[in-house]
Amino acid sequence: MSSTSAAAPGPNGPRPRPDFERIALLLQGGGALGSYQAGAYQALAECNLHPDWVAGISIGAINCALIAGNPPEKRVEKLRTFWETITASPIGIPHFGSYEIKNDMQRQIVNQWRAMGTLLWGAPNFFKPRFPPPIFTPAGNPGNLAYYDVAPLKVLLESLVDFDRINDPKKPTRFSVGATNVKTGNFAYFDSTTHKICAEHVMASGSLPPGFPATEIDGEFYWDGGVVSNTPLQWVLDERPRNDTLAFQIDLWNARGELPRDMIEVDVRQKDIRYSSRTRAGTDQFRKLQKVRRAAAKLLADMRPELRQTPEAEILAQEADAKVYNIIHLIYHSKNYEGASKDYEFSRRTMEEHWTSGYDDMVNTLRHPEVLQRPQSADGVFTFDLARQGREQEIKK
Fold first, then answer.
1. How many CA atoms are closer than 13 Å to the CA of 46, on its beta-carbon side?
2. DSSP conformation class of 53
3. How far apart are CA 35 and CA 24, in angstroms?
4. For the segment 116-150, what is each residue's pLDDT rounded down to a tens digit?
5. N or C, fewer C-beta in 10 Å, the chain?
6. In degrees, to the nearest 5, what angle opens at C-alpha 27 toward C-alphas 147 and 53?
7. For residues 224 and 240, is the Cβ–Cβ distance under 8 A?
8. Residue 168 CB: number of other CB atoms within 10 A?
9. What is the pLDDT of residue 166?
10. What is the value of pTM for the model shown?
11. Where are the alpha helices (DSSP H) in 69-216?
12. Each residue's pLDDT tens digit, 311-359
């Protein structure tokens, strides 16, 4: 099965691997919005742009597990199975077809009704209401303090994800997910190079309180990584030894927006700001640091041998880096009718809309050949953001 736009398939089709040592896919958290990432990945897969490293937070962690835990030819199929499973109607009411919804006001009402259904009945094979609610249960295990039970998610993940594949050092796809240690408040990454990954690590990354309970791993309890930071960008860019990197950063929240005009828009705006994790600002800061690192590398290369032995030169050598980076940024732009419930409106129609938007945005991005070419700028960093300047490219040299 496929969810794509008929007008979009221009650049699709296998192509030679770009001239980078590493292709990274970075997926932000965002609940029901996550099918946008699945659609974007489908466009990458059709172009044979399979990542060497997937890193995610929350729903991004789940999508990453479905990608890393399956062979390339099965990944889109498993993503489709997951998203179709959790967006089935929780009470068996048929989905409205798009032809039955006449305008944005009606769409908003239908979306809010479906979101209310999620709050009341959960999402099939993902989470279900906890009875009795935690307000009526005594204090105890943090793994029981939540409004929903996520046990169905563990079963679903284990049926769709081959964790042996993720943990096999011979497999080429590295896997990382971020979570928050409840006791220390520190951010933690579970990485297939340092941990034996299982369903609990993926679930820990998406354990957003108070809806979902903390997940216990090795005696410690973890909440959603988005409590601290909703993007794995810094984790990947700070990795050592460094590699020439083509990074696709797919975000679900837009830090930029209009001033709110009513209380609903206030709620939407604060969510966008809180969970966007300022990834554009992080990218800009990385560019500045990389310019300094490349300058240090050049100085060291031209330095006399006796100067290279000094403590100051050794400090510079630790930070020097002549590698190049392409950071390709996609951000989902929600419709006005989606409202503040957009991250928990798990309906099939909306899922399909998100999937198609992600597919189309990635297709349009890949139409720009410079996206896959090594940067020639002094700082060695190329950024591409389709959303800026009227959804046209931004090239910094």
1. 20
2. E
3. 19
4. 889 899 999 999 998 877 776 666 788 888 999 99
5. N
6. 125
7. no
8. 12
9. 98
10. 0.89
11. 75-86, 104-121, 151-160, 163-167, 199-205
12. 889 888 888 888 999 999 999 988 878 888 899 999 999 999 999 999 9
Q: Which long-range contacts (CB under 8 A, 24 or more apart) does 267-272 make?
A: 267/339, 267/340, 268/334, 268/339, 268/340, 268/342, 271/340, 271/343
What residues pair up with 127 in beta bridges, in sequence order?
Answer: 123
Render 325-346 in DSSP notation, one character per residue: EEEEEEE----GGGGGGTTS--
Give the span between the Cα atoms of 205 and 158, in whole angstroms: 16
Please say whether the dihedral angle defined by the alpha carbons of residues 35, 40, 45 and 46, taken in this order, is positive or negative: positive
The residue ranking higher by pLDDT, 397 or 65, is 65
Provide the angle, in degrees to the nearest 10, between the axes of the packed helices 75-86 and 348-366.
150
Which residues are CB-contacts of 323 (< 8 A; sequence separation ≥ 6)? 21, 242, 243, 244, 245, 380
As a three-state string, the secondary structure of 197-248 is CCHHHHHHHCCCCCCCCCEEECCEEEEEHHHCCCCCHHHHHCCCCCCCEEEE
What is the helix (H) or strand (E) element at residue 396, kind and residue range? none
Q: At what angle do helices 151-160 and 59-68 cross, to 10 degrees?
A: 30
In angstroms, the Cα distances linking 224 to 209, 212, 221, 250, 343 are: 8, 9, 10, 18, 14
Amino acid at 164: D
Q: Which residues contact 16 (CB under 8 A, 6 or more apart)?
A: none
pLDDT digits (tens, 9 = 90+) for 255-280: 888 888 878 788 888 888 888 877 77
Which amino acid makes up residue 43? A
Nearest-angstrom CA–CA distance, 249 and 109: 32
Report CA dihedral (248, 186, 222, 52) to the nearest 10 degrees. 20
Is residue 15 pLDDT above 90, yes or no?
no
